[in-house]
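Weekly modeling sync, notes
Attendees: AB, CL, MP (scribe)

Item 1: holo prediction request
CL wants a bound-state model with magnesium ion before deciding which constructs to order. AB pointed out that an apo prediction alone won't tell us much about the pocket. Agreed to run with the ligand included and paste results into these notes for async review.

Input as submitted:
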Amino acid sequence: MITDPDIERYATEHTSPLPDFMAAIAADTREHLQAPEMLIGELAGRFLEFLTFALRARRVLELGTYSGYSALAMASGMGSGGGEIITCERDPEHAAIARRNIAASPFADMIDVREGAALDLLAGVEGPFDLIFIDADKPSYPAYFEACLPLLADRGLMALDNMLREGDVLHPADEGTRVLAELNDQIAADPRVVQILLPLRDGLVLVHRAG
Ligand code: DHB
Ligand code: MG
């Protein structure tokens, strides 16, 4: 976590909690899955809900489903008017857990969990999307960024998770962090897009098309 834990707790306490069934998914994920730090959590989850709400998003693409929490957070901002979320997961065990969590939620009809490598699955996906959330394996982020940019709606947003790597982007020591630090530099110099790097949880980059 980048922010002071007391500040993070205070911010979470003053943020509307996500629905009860999502708190149960978070608790189950933390108890039963390896790497529960991959869960985006209440604060970033509520932020994703605000994005789909503000965008009036009707079509969302996610790379990296994990236990389904972030897809459900995005679905909760899309309201009862419906919409579609396609979410891609490479790990069969995670895909199965996500499908189970999503099937038991009020948003089961909106979310399509596709199993496989994201770049392979993207070949079968058609844009435009109002929101694209990239949260899969870090070394492939540059390829995901390039593949997803053409899939964005004119006023769509791309969001990329973990772009601060707990602060390690300042001094990258592993391959995933090096790739993300380079991608931050590349996006900052990319005339096609306007970006903001938010120090929310583990660093969330938002991108929209320039001009
Ligand atoms: C890792 C991946 C994530 O997407 C995340 O949010 C946190 C950690 C990881 O691979 O360690
Ligand atoms: Mg992540």
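Recorded for review: The chain has a mean pLDDT of 96.
Action items: CL to compare against the apo run; MP to circulate these notes.
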